[in-house]
Structure formats: C-alpha cells, structure tokens
Amino acid sequence: MGYQLELRHFSYFLAVAEELHFRKAAERLYISQPGLSRQIKQMEEIIGTALFIRTKRKVELTAAGQYLKREVAYLFNHIDFTVKQTSLIAKGYEGEIRIGFLGSAMQTVVPDLLIRMNQEFPNIHASLDEMSNYHQVEAIEKDKLDIGFVRLARVPEGLKMQTVLTDNFSLVLPENHLLHNSNFKSIDQVSEEDFILFSSDYSNVYYDMIMSICEDKGFTPKVSHKSVHAQTIFKLVESGLGVAIVPTSLQHGFDLRVKFLEIPNIPQKTTLSVIWKEDNRNPALQQVRKFW
C-alpha cells in the first residue's frame, strides 16, 4: 500500500532540519525517536531522495533537504499568518500588517505611520518587532514581516526599498562637556576622546559612514564601546565613558544628561528606508503602501 505525504511529515521534517538531532527533535515533538526516524524514512521514500546525511556523530541536510527546509518554513509561516488573518477578519479587522524596525525609526517614522494607519485604516491591526537590519531582511524574505525600517545600501533580489527619512548626524556629549553650540566647529575637536558607536551589527553601512566622518577630518576614532541600542550608548556617554555620533533625530525621546550638537560641514547623511517583499500578497500591505 502506497503512502502519501501528510502535513505531519513536514512538521517532523522541519523539527529535525532545525535541530539536526533526532533525539532533540523527537523530544520537541513529544514522540519517540524510533517513531520519528520511521516517519522521516517514509518521507524520503515517498519523495524519492535522501533529505538527511546520518552518521554516528552528526546529522546534516542534503542539498535537497536544505531546499525543502526553506520551502517548508516559508509554507508554515504563511499558514500561521493566514490563520491569524482569518481570526482577525472574524473579529472585524481587515487584517494585520507586521512591521519590523530599528530603534531610531521609533522616533518619528513608525509613530507617524501608525497614526496615519489608524486614521485611514482603523481596522488594520499592526504588530511591531524591533530587530536588526539583517533579521528584518531575513524575516521579510521568509514572510514573517511585511515591512521593515532599515539602514541599508541595498537589499536582496525580490525585495523593494524606498527612502523615507534623510537625517544629519550629531555629536553626543555628557551634559557638562566643555563643547557647546557656540564653540563646536568640527568633529576633530573630540579626536582624542573615546567613542561609543553603534555596532556594525546595527548596520555596516552606517558604521562605515561614522568612521568616514572622523577620517575625513584626519583621525580614526578610538572606539571604547559598541552597542545596537541608542539608550545604552547615551547612558555610557552620560556616565562620561566617551562621546558618540548618532542621527540627529535620535535626540528626542530620551531623558538623560547628554547634549546633542549637530556636526557642521560634513557631506555624510544617514537614510532610513522602508523595505518590503515585491510578491507579498498581504492585502493590508497594499493599503499601507500609499503612505510612502
């Protein structure tokens, strides 16, 4: 009697593909390890190819298994989203828009978007998730997010990007620092101080731009600390552990003893962009896209 692939096969496969360990996958699924092994073997027989390379020391995906993992993860994400959308529609909503963002986007861009959405599409539910550039791109590719707010020079094929904010840079200093608006002329006035910068994990492009601001003035900054969170950077500056360079718009929304001096006479600008997947079928996205 021939077997057919069922949804459980794909659930079992994905657990093993993510764990790369049959015992751990079985524990995660609350089934026996021999039973899981039989289900995977059955799946491979139905498809007609090996999905895993099994040795006594490790489990690895074959090329076919790697492809299937990507596709099954995408399908399960889409199923989960579709079920959630269905539930929201049943409750009177028109759907959900899933938004990823960098912390700096929460200063003005994301709140403005939410206000406009609430005014024009009050029945579209918005969910928010703060994450890095890389994780936003990955989540959008996997249909876990609909839009993201990032600082990137380019995005992978299949994704669209549009600039929504262009910003200047400001120097962040402790409140009692000798420099102030009237005597601050150039960034090289702090060339001997320690710098606290956004990590390159936040954005490689952004990090390189900060470095170039300093290098254009003849020095390489001594970087003492890095972080992906503005609050952490400002707290370190407040504590006298260094100075920082950030987008000027980040000066709002923090109650700390620091001051912001916009850096004069530099060509560098920082851009915040919205990204989305070109073939995203979420109808809520099509509505919201009118805002950029």
From TrEMBL:
<feature type="domain" description="HTH lysR-type">
    <location>
        <begin position="5"/>
        <end position="62"/>
    </location>
</feature>
<dbReference type="InterPro" id="IPR036390">
    <property type="entry name" value="WH_DNA-bd_sf"/>
</dbReference>
<dbReference type="InterPro" id="IPR000847">
    <property type="entry name" value="LysR_HTH_N"/>
</dbReference>
<comment type="similarity">
    <text>Belongs to the LysR transcriptional regulatory family.</text>
</comment>
<keyword id="KW-0238">DNA-binding</keyword>
<dbReference type="Pfam" id="PF00126">
    <property type="entry name" value="HTH_1"/>
</dbReference>
<dbReference type="InterPro" id="IPR005119">
    <property type="entry name" value="LysR_subst-bd"/>
</dbReference>
<keyword id="KW-0804">Transcription</keyword>
<keyword id="KW-0805">Transcription regulation</keyword>
<dbReference type="InterPro" id="IPR036388">
    <property type="entry name" value="WH-like_DNA-bd_sf"/>
</dbReference>
<dbReference type="Pfam" id="PF03466">
    <property type="entry name" value="LysR_substrate"/>
</dbReference>
<protein>
    <submittedName>
        <fullName>LysR substrate-binding domain-containing protein</fullName>
    </submittedName>
</protein>
